[in-house]
Amino acid sequence: MLRSPLAVVLGRGSAGDGVAHWWAQRVSALALVPLTLWFVVSLIGVPLNDYAAVTIWIGAGWNPVWLTLLLLAVCWHSRLGVQVVIEDYVHGPALKLASLLLNNAAHAVLLAAGVYAVLRIALRSAT
Amino acid sequence: MSTQTRPLSPHLGIYRFMYTMALSILHRITGVWMAFGLVALVAWLCSAAAGEGDYARATALLGSAIGRILLLLWLAAFCYHFVNGLRHLAWDALLGLEKRTARLTGRVALAVALVGFLALAYLLFCPRAGWP
Hints:
The complex is a heterodimer.
Chain A: H1 5-10, H2 20-43, H3 51-59, H4 63-89, H5 93-126
Helix pairs in contact in A: 2-4, 3-5, 4-5
Chain B: H1 19-50, H2 52-63, H3 65-92, H4 99-125
Helix pairs in contact in B: 1-2, 1-3, 2-3, 3-4
């Protein structure tokens, strides 16, 4: 058995925290299966260059809710995925740390800007 | 740097090339490519929130030749990453890990992604979609 001395002493093995990133990647992927399918199917037939039609679609019914969830899941999934790519291919501790911080910041901005845009459109059409 | 002169464990280069390797790296490439697509998606939403003029400028960009090529490349990346992602999720559930099964599902994933891409590309740019 490959077990560390500490694990043998505690008798419990891993606490499970080490796989948090791995799990979050899978959970966000599972969430994205229905959310991206909804996005693609729901957009079929919406004329994309028609401002009125598109903003009505964004604000219609539960669409703002699904769009917000889609943005949340896709930003989280993308952030985790790009993080792994940076960890694998960017070398040098300073450059790696800077890339990881930039990755987190960029995805936070994308999430906030996307959700803000959806809510602005949804609340405008609701009033 | 002493760390760079240490012997390395056997690396990718020692393995005979197999198309499943290309499918594997393609998952990463399409994923990173879609991260840039996410920027375009959010910019599109922001332009719609900003008003009719900004939205018209955004759709003019997306409807231009370069915009259409980018959209098609993002759509292709999405189709492949989506289908191959299902393959990854199945592996995580310990399904389909046999060498022959994994190779077969790789071909199936590529075929399904291609069909999905062609259908969605048509719907995206068919006359009914209303591009100028």
